[in-house]
Specification:
The chain is α/β, with parallel strands linked by helices. The chain contains twelve helices and seven strands. The longest helix is centred in the middle third of the chain and has 29 residues, at about 170-200.
Length: about 300
């Protein structure tokens, strides 16, 4: 499998580090592409691959193409049925789509790819930049099981754990729920620590107590100290949190469910974006809740 030619479309924080990891593991990194050409060119200088200027070139040079793009519109564009597209000459190719996008776009991309003689797999990630570089991602995979088996060795070199969850669209659903709950937990932690600060409670002590009680959470481990110290270097942006909560709310709407906590959380992240804070880490939601803070 390491002899297969691999490409990445979207080499931002996550895509670039996944590419670095596979290069370290001995894979042939055949091409990279990004609409921000500087990002692709910089990675080429580091890894010694090729930065293509068209999507069709990516497909021509590669066997397995990972896509890590921003949203549904970007997915629709890179898999367009007309003009420059990854689907040009795509017969026999496998597309591993890692972005957090709607289940509907995964289903549409699968349909288009199969019409072009190619295969797709969802490989949704529940981790951050550090895990991408270290090859310790948690992956939720969905699509044809035969496609999953075909790229499973590559995915194992990117992850410490992964689950095959079913047909196309299911991984996107699960990832939306993961991020919805994570975002709610993050907003709740920011409010708890913010109120603690307003009451004059020592926040280091409060975080230690949270960790030993029902207030404990994974978010407390990853974001609590950052909230206290106003360290919001971006690992998962507030803008992405808003987008992902929105995907979950659309799924809830379709299922006829009212999710007031998810709705309130999305409104908080939307506020961050409106205040120009969208590129802060999700922990930056504390800027809306701690006394004396703000844009």
């Amino acid at each position: 499998m390491a002899s297969q030619r691999i490409a990445f479309v979207g080499v931002g924080r996550m895509g670039a580090n996944m590419a670095r990891r596979l290069k370290d593991k001995g894979y042939t990194l055949a091409a990279v592409y990004d609409v921000v050409t500087e990002a692709a060119d910089t990675l080429v200088q580091e890894l010694g691959t090729v930065a293509t200027r068209t999507l069709a070139e990516v497909t021509a040079l590669s066997d397995v193409i990972f896509t890590v793009v921003t949203d549904d519109a970007a997915m629709d564009k890179i898999f367009a049925t007309e003009g420059d597209s990854l689907l040009q000459g795509a017969r026999g190719r496998i597309f591993v789509n890692c972005a957090t996008v709607s289940p509907a776009i995964h289903l549409e991309v699968e349909r288009r790819a199969e019409a072009a003689g190619a295969s797709t797999l969802e490989a949704c990630m529940a981790a951050s930049i550090t895990q991408a570089r270290q090859g310790t991602l948690y992956l939720m995979c969905a699509g044809k099981e035969a496609t999953f088996k075909a790229v499973e060795p590559i995915l194992r070199d990117l992850s410490s754990s992964m689950r095959y969850v079913g047909a196309t669209g299911k991984a996107a659903q699960v990832k939306a729920l993961v991020n919805m709950v994570m975002n709610i937990n993050t907003a709740g932690l920011a409010e708890g620590l913010g109120l603690g600060a307003a009451l004059g409670i020592d926040l280091t002590m409060l975080r230690e107590i949270f960790a030993q009680t029902g207030a404990a959470s994974r978010v407390l481990e990853t974001d609590g100290e950052d909230m206290q110290n106003r360290d919001h270097a971006c690992f998962f942006s507030a803008a992405h949190a808003a987008k992902d909560s929105g995907i979950a709310l659309e799924l809830a709407k379709a299922a006829g469910l009212n999710l007031p906590l998810a709705k309130a959380t999305k409104e908080q992240y939307d506020r961050m974006v409106a205040k120009g804070l969208g590129e802060l880490d999700k922990s930056g939601i504390a800027e809306l809740t701690f006394p004396g803070r703000g844009a």
